[in-house]
Amino acid sequence: MRIANIMFSKGGGGIERAFIDYCEGLRDLGHQSIAITAPDAMVNSELRELNIETHHVSNLGEWDFFAALRLRRLLLELKFNVVIANANRAFTLSRKAIKGRIPLIGIVQNYSTSRYNAADAVFTTTHDLVETMIKQGIPKDNVFHIPNMIKCSELPHRGNRNEPPVIGTMGRFVAKKG
Known about the structure:
Blueprint (H helix, E strand, L loop, with lengths): L1 E6 L6 H15 L3 E6 L5 H7 L4 E3 L8 H14 L3 E5 L1 H11 L5 E5 L12 E4 L2 H9 L7 E3 L33
Parallel strand pairs: 1-2, 1-4, 2-3, 4-5, 5-6, 6-7
Helix pairs in contact: 3-4
């Protein structure tokens, strides 16, 4: 399958890490996963290192009409079977660009979700986001819980158990993540 994986965030946080993991995971499953990013996105260097085909679309934000036109031209020229949009700006520009011509999947990682009703399918990172999307009117059969990936070359060695157990986690606790 020929998949456009689109993200226009420029930083290097969790959404960007998940985007790289999607690109690599889809490629490793045998799909032709092509990344579409902003020209100055931090992910571009890692995508090059991973030999992920990448195209760039500059944009001034999700309401950039000319960026939507440039994205439409690229998507039609490269003849994709499906578009995966990571985060709000990518989703909004992709929706405008494809206008229903190509199936659109939105990846939802926080509670800023109102625009995703126009998606053909939604991937969420938590079970609570699944419920949020269904309450928002997206058919249950179109919402899928897919946690963020983690790449392990081999399972970690367990060793002796601690008493009491030691549990570690890492994350950013902000209201928009619920």
